[in-house]
Amino acid sequence: MSRSTPRYTRRGFVGGTLAGGVAAGLGSDAVAAGRDASAGPPPRCTRQLEARAQDGPVLQLDPLDSPVRIDSLRLLRATTDAGPYYFVHVRSQDGAEGYSVANFWVTELYPIFSRRVAPFFVGKDARDLEFLVDEVYRHRSNYKLQSLGLWCPVAWVEFALLDMLGRMLGKPVGQLMGGVRRRRIPVYPASGNRGNPPEAEVEHLARLLADTGCRAVKFRVGGRMSNNEDSLPGRSEALIPLARRRLGDDVTLFADANSSYDVRHSIRLGRLMEAHNYGFFEEPCPFDWLEETRQVTAALEMPIAWGEQESSHWAFRWMIAHHGMDIVQPDLHYFGGFIRTARVARMCQAAGLPLSLHLSGGLGYSQMLHFTSCMPNLYDFQEFKGDVRQTGGWFDPPILFRDGRLNVPTAPGFGMVAAADLVQNAEQVG
Ligand SMILES: [Mg+2]
Fold it and tell me: Which CATH superfamily is domain 70-161 in?
């Protein structure tokens, strides 16, 4: 093993993740992510975690001293050089504007946006956004739709409102969320393949690394929600050692089971990953098997990552309180936006658990960059899916890969300066 590669064990987290954070110049608050052992045991009490989550507002909007009434929220389908994209456009009664880009679920979820989410926000004061993202859950019994089906449309509205507020204040979104701490984010590409032969997959992983300059990469194991079946007989057991052999000891490797295994099979696969020094094992058990995921976390030395499917603040709180995972992976869209995710991040920080956001592609990388620009407790790498060569130029400055890192746009809001042009001939769909 290379001397530069840390040994990935949970107990090594403070030494590994922390040292990496400090070496990367992440600032003193990053140290709190892995917690100083001298600070005593982290809180595992739900009451303490909740107090931390609710400890003051997430947003800093002080300079806005008069109401910002939302006049309209529209869902627009734009044809771009990079293909069709769905934008949310918000306008205030005073003519301020903001934009966001939806994820691919929009083609299924636009009626929830149009009928249940957007009408709730119209007429409200955008400065009350933290209150509004909680109230929309209660509005017209929307909580009965609790899942990404409700929270994705809420996230798209929240992103557009944050963009508008940021433009009004002349600040990037991170400055509204406690201040920008870093302007370049280390990421890892994630392979979307499953069911291809191990030899073909490691060649694909090598290409992903070469194309991006990244130092970490993730691939899929198991059969996805498959009750222990693999996508090809023996694929996962062959791929785990082969990827290490082919890609070398200096690359950090992650494997994602997408809910494939029960506890026994998860531990068996995890032991194989431990033998090859994998960085984390993601979603080993079905995503809502909270207790089983906790058992796998407790049994293995290596870190377990979890959280992409979760849409409940209280389920995250339970998992954090019970050390159900080592690395916390909310999805900014699936979980309903920056404000709700920031509350989870506060609980993670209190418990010494780092964040590594889940991405579902599209323009998700741009939202990830702004969110992680201002969070204190990050894991060494954030997920990357998407194509910055096609859409990175929509931002100011353009988002580019450099040495496995992506730069955070600095223009106000999300920095998507091309938005107004991109939607000029768009069709309104909601
Ligand atoms: Mg996953």
Answer: Enolase-like, N-terminal domain (3.30.390.10)
